[in-house]
Amino acid sequence: MKINGVPYRSVWIDQTDNRTVCIFDQTKLPFSLVTLQLTTSAEVAHAITSMQVRGAPLIGAVAAYGLALALSKDASDAAMEDEAAMLAATRPTAINLRWAIERMLTKLRAVAEKDRVAVAYDEAGHICDEDAAQNEAIGRHGLELIREIAKNKKSGEKINILTHCNAGWIATVDWGTALAPIYMAYDEGLPVHVWVDETRPRNQGAALTAWELGSHGVPHTVIVDNAGGHLMQHGKVDLVIVGTDRVTAQGDVANKIGTYLKALAAHDNGIPFWVALPSTTIDWRVRDGLREIPIEERSPQEVTTVTGETAAGELQTVRITPQGSNAANPAFDVTPARLVTGLITERGRCTASAEGLRKLFPGSIS
Ligand SMILES: CSC[C@@H](O)[C@@H](O)C(=O)COP(=O)(O)O
Fold first, then answer.
1. What are the backbone angles phi and psi of residue 213, rounded to the nearest 5°?
2. Domain boundaries defined on the chain
3. How many Cβ atoms are within 10 Å of 188's Cβ, its own excluded?
4. Quick check: is 115 catalytic?
5. How far, in Å, from the CA of 335 to the mean position of ligand 1?
6. What is the C-alpha to C-alpha distance for residues 155 and 304, in angstroms, rounded to an integer?
7. ipTM above 0.95, yes or no
8. What Cα–Cα distance (Å) separates residue 147 from each residue in 98, 137, 175, 216?
9. Which protein family is it in (predicted)?
10. Whole-prediction pTM value?
11. Is 243's C-beta closer than 6 angstroms to any atom of ligand 1?
């Protein structure tokens, strides 16, 4: 996608040394666009845990490059396995992370030590290219859905889409998942308007989705997380599209905390609730999302504080709760398949069910 007319991806390799991994520091957005240069696997791990990079597909891609950086220091079998395990453990819920590391290891275990660095950069590059292509395809399939909704509207009438968290291009290598169809709809002149859930505690909606949509010119309105149900009751939402960190083989969906409540409200109001994902987000090994998907618990400090920019342009974190109050911070929840209207994948749309997934990805369910 473009920033001020210049095309960017969310991760790239520095052309001057063909080694350094470059990312945008997402903890600084929307206030400033800062590029970080990562030169060690420890820096990559820190970038993932501190959420300088985030979003399931992107952390997988960046971790893959992290392994390449690790191998450029020590390409032995033992170091490779240790570093891979270290990177895979940085965040527990997004399956793309484990998927990317396993794919790298499968490739690299078959390669002589001396060739590993080159092969690792190459494979990580393929992971990035494939992610960008898959998300573009998701965009095309999701666009059809938005066109169908547009057909039932009067000419020029707004199509109101609600989204939660950030599943845009900076959560992936390019395009995004939930936002890809919205970008394409906007680009072809459909009158889309996006309700952006702020997504406490880290405000990925208010900070990142709003920044992305605004940079592209897509009309949007930031709302507090609790407003969605009210808007749905009053006919102000036509469609919900969210991303996901892990979809089970029977179609349960783990996504940013609060997604489940939006799905319940959408269900109660008869509003379509779609989940956009590349197939790398499907965990074919698990079926029951509630019992089998590990939910990341993050620091209570993310709940007891908020961070924003002062009038002087400095980032400031302030406390918003009494000193003695406890806080809990589960970062994801699971929406059962029965509340999901359908899945938008790179191969097309399907129901959120083992049957639906099997039709699109024959042979994948064990
Ligand atoms: C295409 S990104 C899909 C998901 O990773 C996204 O919806 C999400 O929940 C991101 O959570 P985050 O904690 O910001 O990494």
1. -65, -40
2. 2-129, 154-360
3. 12
4. no
5. 14
6. 46
7. yes
8. 35, 15, 19, 20
9. Belongs to the EIF-2B alpha/beta/delta subunits family. MtnA subfamily.
10. 0.98
11. yes
